[in-house]
Sequence to fold (97 residues):
Amino acid sequence: MVKEVTFSLDTDAAADIIGDMMMPTVGQSGRAIQSRAQSMASSQSSKPPAIKISTAIGTIKRGRRAIATISIQADDAHQAYIGAMALRKAKDAGRLK
Fold:
């Protein structure tokens, strides 16, 4: 006797669940990048720019993802340059091992 079982997967709900599961990991990577960039900027200037992080679930071309956004809040062009260079160099700090 053969018994057939059918099921369906709600891909929208699955994307939401995976995004929620990844949020702590994405936040941890973002905080590591922020910390390294802030440290680098502080070593280059007596008045470094503020480097902030925000995390959220967002929609991109390939679907819903956990996203960390790291921004630089500078008072002048010199601070903006220092912050941008520090952020560019600090991106490796957020890599997962």
About this structure: Residues 11-94 form one domain. Helices lie at 11-44, 77-90.
